[in-house]
Amino acid sequence: MREMDKIRVTLVAVLGENIMPLHQLLRISRGSVIALNRDENDLVRLYAGDVKVALGNLEIDRDKVLLRLVKLLSPSPVIYRRPDTHDIKTPEGAQAVEAKQSTGPDAPHQAD
Q: How far apart are alpha carbons 52 and 81 in whole angstroms?
């Protein structure tokens, strides 16, 4: 088995967010409805760890919920982290964090 095959990454599909008071959270039960800050046509954000890597649409196939990816996000100097990981929010609800640039022989080279 190659080394890359041993690495596990947690994928999180974020449908939307909602902030509520603790007393309201304590009252939720089976059948409760929680409004999220998104429209039905908004894309679902896919995170690998806490880095946003793709956008997609939810689909139902028999008894499974699927995420059909419609946009892969290319690596950039700015990494968008899940909203629950830091305090500064971007318009999409994620946070922008400057990526550390690596140096050395294996570092990617940028054209000037």
A: 6
User: Class for domain 3-75, per CATH?
Assistant: mainly beta
Query: SS in 3 state form for the chain?
Result: CCHHHHCCCCEEEECCCCCCCHHHHHHCCCCCCCCCCCCCCCCEEEEECCEEEEEEEEEEECCEEEEEEEEECCCCCEEEECHHHCCCCCCCCCEEEECCCCCCCCCCCCCC
The stretch 20-35 carries a mean pLDDT of 94
- Phi then psi for residue 20, to 5 deg, are -140, 155
Model-level pTM greater than 0.70?
A: no
